[in-house]
Design goal:
The structure holds 2 protein chains of 2 kinds. By secondary structure, chain A is an alpha+beta fold. Chain A has 16 helices and 30 strands. Chain A has 4 domains: 142 residues, ATPase, nucleotide binding domain (Nucleotidyltransferase, domain 5, 2-Layer Sandwich), CATH 3.30.420; 116 residues, Coenzyme B12-Dependent Enzyme linker domain (Ribosomal Protein L22, Chain A, Alpha-Beta Complex), CATH 3.90.470; 161 residues, Glucose Oxidase, domain 1 (3-Layer(bba) Sandwich); 62 residues, OB fold (Dihydrolipoamide Acetyltransferase, E2P) (Beta Barrel), CATH 2.40.50.140. Chain A is 28% helix and 30% strand. In chain A, helix 13 crosses helix 14. Chain A is elongated and about 105 Å long. By secondary structure, chain B is α/β, with parallel strands linked by helices. Chain B has a domain of 51 residues. In chain B, strand 1, helix 1 and strand 2 form a beta-alpha-beta unit. The radius of gyration of chain B is 12 Å and the shape is globular. Classes of the chains: A alpha+beta, B alpha/beta.
Amino acid sequence: MEYVAGVDIGNSSTEVALFGRSADGADGEFVSSALYRTTGLKGTKKNVPGVVNALSRAAETAGIEVSEIDRVLLNEAAPVIGDVAMETITETVITESTMIGHDPSTPGGVGLGRGIGVEITADPEEFATEEPVVFLVPETVDFAAAAATISEWAEAGFEIAGAIVQRDDAVLIDNRTDVEIPIVDEVAGLEKVPRGQPTAIEVAPSSTGKTIDELSNPYGIATVFDLSPEETQKIIPVARALVGNKSAVVIETPQGDVEERTIPAGDLEIVDERGNTTDVPVDDGADRIMEAVMDSWPVADVRGESGSNIGGMLNRARASMAEVTGQPVDAIEIRDIMAVDTLVPQQVEGSVAEEHSTESAVALAAMVKTQQLPMDQIAAGLEAELDTEVLIQGIEANMAVLGSLTTPGTDHPLAILDLGGGSTDAAYMDEQRAIDSIHLSGAGDMVTMMIDSELGIEDRDLAEAIKKHPAAKIEDLYRVREEDGTVSFLDESVEPELFGRTVLLEDDGGMRAVPIDASVEEIRRTRRRAKRKVFVANAERALNLITPTESIRRLPFVVMVGRSALDFEIPELVSEAMAEYGIVCGRANVRSELGPRNAVATGLVLSHVGSGSYLDFEIPTDLSTALERTTA
Amino acid sequence: MSGCRGPIEGDDDLPRVQVWIAGDREPDLLAGIEHGLEEEGVPWVVHEAEGEGVSLAYEASRASRGTSRSSIHPN
């Protein structure tokens, strides 16, 4: 037997298809497939250990030694890499302590109160009973003492409107006084709260799922403080920042203000292939950026303003590609930008209780391209390592199409969508079996970044896990409520530390706690929105650009391959969107058994050994002539 | 308050965190535990018991409907 291995070096994983054929070449079949993580940056000599490992795994599955592999076929990897960045374009700033809008887990009492802020240790004889009082309880005052003081002032004839507490004591105080008031606790910066000012406090009823509805409403605040129409306009950022909270405090101060500012995020300079330049301010938002990108298509280069996050990201991507290829940084081009509007929780500047406000941001992904990756160095490294013949066999997109055509039910003309981690690629094989391809920025890594930012996680590993796995709620030790509302009863109890927690249901049956304050519904909504904004938008963009007619309605078959096509819901989201155009779009099933994996590796082998029974047509000469290439 | 010391009323159906204390004196820790449970709105019940800490926690777990337990031992 002669063994031929096709090897696809991707951004995150290296795949192998191992083919065995009889000495006379008459009979042959795929004998195994394997997958191993890509070592080093794609297209560099550091990929060699990963390739050797993947080949060894494939050989082991086939029951042979890796040294028995007669020929290794490498794809000419697309010389593109992607990178992502986030630019926040608004911020909320408190110029004096006018608002406490945080969400303590256990506020006390319920309702809306308005009064003058008074230190709880103050002497009641210094105050008139006509003015309602909101107590400020520092951490030095015990909850029992605070409750007793509240009761004493009430008995002395004061109207107690509420309490703002530094420690996590709201329920403890509420349970020890008969005075029914709203109490907000865990206000870390209580010393910054102005005394003697009109103060409104609201706590939503517990166990009802309701949020505050007066202080999150501009007219509610206007009613409480008797504001003029001009003053009401100014407190809109306050109301907006408090939407969705279960408790809040608003304080009227002479100079106090809360304002929403736009942060200058710099300009993007988009250069088209004719040399025309379009400048777009990043803070104009994603729609404006994408409009400029598509108006400038095909894009020759994109530059970002130095000092901005975007400028830094573009320079970083350029530098990475320059390092890989050994070319000067100036020779590296940014060939695509994808922008998505998003909202991110940010700590309010000047806040007293670590309040967060939802700010506008723009997520950007960039696609960097150079002339060619140094694949010959990898081939030479492999030959030295394995002492076997290594051929650079074919262009990645062409091989992906060939491999995808082994999916039952497909035929050409056909378009493939390669949904990866760093880029979304598309290729199209027309009636004459000529293939065209395109590489667009924005894929799985961008989705991860958006989940990370929108949920305020600041943990890329956790965001990646949220992207990959459905969420669920552990209702008790034996019951799990899944995202769709289904309740599963378990035979064995979950780990005690998962009790009541939101978890991710991992592929191996394991559960991973999600240590953030977000409901299952919020996690699901954020995850699906990010996937839709990136993958559905990019699928439409890629197919529109790759289709000769520029109308994706004319595409008969669209097949999804790549790492993100393995996702449990991305193919479904893309298929759903494509169905509106009346085209058949689904996840590939390479060689009827491998799903969306191994398309390029399989295509490499097919282009070398002929289509056999895997394709119902002869492979065009230009897709198999790579055989004649000189070995590295 | 959701707490309860001593035997629970016969008709009390509420699942509670079982806090079992061994020894003659209540440890200072108990007050902290009770205040924490109260602030979070978690029902609990405190029992006096005899025995070693881990086995007490196990026995408490068998007695708990809410399947959350703790025991406090002077040692």
